[in-house]
Amino acid sequence: MTVQAHEGVKPAKRRFSIDYHTMGPLLALIVLCLVGFVLNPAFLSEGNVTNLLTRSAFIGIIAVGGTFVITAGGIDLSVGSMAAVISGIMIIVMNGAIDTMGVGVQTVLFGCLVSVVLGTAAGFLNGFMTTKGKIEAFIVTLGTMGIYRSLVTYFADGGTLSLDFDIRDVYRPVYYDAVLGVPIPVIVFALVAIVGWVLLNRTAFGRYCMAIGSNETVARYSAIKVDRVKTLTYVIQGLCVSVATIIYVPRLGSASSSTGVLWELEAIAAVIIGGTMLKGGYGRIGGTVVGAIMLTTIGNILNLTDIISNYLNGAVQGVIIIAAVWLQRGNLGHLNIFRRKPSA
Amino acid sequence: MQILKTFAVAALGATALAGAAMAQEVTIGVSIPAATHGWTGGLNWHAQQAEMRIEEQHPEIDIVLVAADGPSQQANDLEDLVAIHDIDALVVLPFESEPLTGPVRNVKEQGVFVTVVDRGLSQEGIEDVYVAGNNTALGAVSAEYFLSRLGEGDNIVILRGIPTVIDDERFNAFMDGIEGSGINVLDHEYANWNRDDGFEVMQDFLSRFPDIDGVWAQDDDIALGVIEAVRQAGREDEMFIVGGAGMKEVIEMVMDGSELIPVDVLYPPAMIATAMDVTVAHFTSNGPVSGEYILGAPLITPENAENFYFPDSPF
Question: What is the DSSP string of B44-87?
Answer without folding.
Answer: HHHHHHHHHHHHHH-TTEEEEEEEESSHHHHHHHHHHHHHTT--
